[in-house]
Amino acid sequence: MSGRSWVVVLMVLMVLSLMEVRSAGPYEPTWESIDARPLPEWFDQAKFGIFIHWGVFSVPSFGSEWFWWYWQKQQLQPYVDFMRSNYPPGFTYQDFAPQFTAEFFDAKEWVDIFASSGAKYIVMTTKHHEGFTLWGSKTSWNWNAVDVGPKRDLVAEVVDALRAKGGLRLGLYHSLFEWFNPLYLKDAAGGYNTSYFPAAKTLPELYDLVARYRPEVLWSDGDGDAPDSYWNSTGFLAWLYNDSPVRDTVVTNDRWGLGTICNHGGYYTCADRYLPGQLPARKWENCMTIDRKSWGYRRNAQLKDFLTIEQLITTLVQTVALGGNLLMNVGPTHEGVIPPIFQERLGQVGGWLAVNGEAIYHTTPWRAQNDSLTPHVWYTYGPQKKAVYAILLDWPDSGAVVLGEPLALGSGATQVELLGYGPLPWRSREPSGVSVQLPPLTINQMPCQWAWALRLTGVA
């Protein structure tokens, strides 16, 4: 395409991004209308997804996926020292891109790992704040995985493997802004009174991702402190909900401009690693990391930096009991390998869900989210079996657990079962609650190792 043609295209895109065009569909480009869209049922039923942070930051793999920003912008000493000790003078962040090789990347292997975890959807980073795209974005000239590094469309490979496998829904993460993009910096310097960057970069990429890959989660991030009007977020979302090829199934989050987080969008994330203390009024997601300190892979991580399986199961149970979904992050290496510790944790979660999945999937919050008498007991409700699930994070030393919240309807109507084992004896307590006798099992007889779910039917 000639330079003149590109100018025409960019001018048209900029005009569209600045216009609040009335949508032909039922959703208008206003937050009042966008927020009124019902959330597709599949998302609330899924409960558990996998986040994947992968990019050029996986090459230095030091400190954080914000490596470039901390090294160049904030001049944090550990990052400066790391570069001074390991790379020659004049080495730039762009010089890392050819080393982003992905030579061991096997999308089918990745999808098998994700499927074995029990996850129902994934969210893959297509572009982080560094601006490098993992697909051949035509607006990311020579700064994408097709032109530099692996010379492959990494997003397409994951999408194809995912859909060939079945059982997992596709989500794509995309950063609205880019730290050092000259067009963004120009707009920011002018107080966002111009929209050169969203017209030339952000909006074309968003439309391209939806048209090419048809994601069912579009996970927006990185507003750069710019308002949603600068990004034309409501205009884009109106198109996404009315006219896009995924308009009936797509789910979006709440990161569409300054002030939108925890206020607008399809569901709320509110903050990284968000876990509210009480049941929120709107559907939400806890996006969190197995590595406590980073979303991307870190070569300098220590074992103590990784959450244990007990901590991960606890987070999953609490999140679902409070009506949320858990989005658990892994960071692959620049070669395209999911490190063994991530594989182990995901496999352990999958083994736990194989026993206790009915207490997680397709459930809703119960009237009580946790028990009033016994700590570390969380509840969910399964409409399909009309069952209340009491999930015990600790196995009691006494051999019995007292549940203060359930109200038994009677010995003939009420049943208690340990998932993966079978029926258990119980008795009513006054004025409410039940005491459940747990079986004397050896470690090898346990249905699972970390948390145990009781199915209670016939309770008020």
UniProtKB/TrEMBL annotation:
Q: Where is the Glycoside hydrolase family 29 N-terminal domain?
A: 20-358
Q: Which GO terms describe its molecular function?
A: alpha-L-fucosidase activity
Cited Pfam families: Alpha_L_fucos (PF01120), Fucosidase_C (PF16757)
Write out the GO cellular component annotations.
lysosome
Keyword check for Chloroplast? no
Regarding protein family, the annotation reads: Belongs to the glycosyl hydrolase 29 family.
Q: What is this protein called?
A: Alpha-L-fucosidase
Q: Which organism is it from?
A: Muraenolepis orangiensis
Lineage in the entry? Eukaryota, Metazoa, Chordata, Craniata, Vertebrata
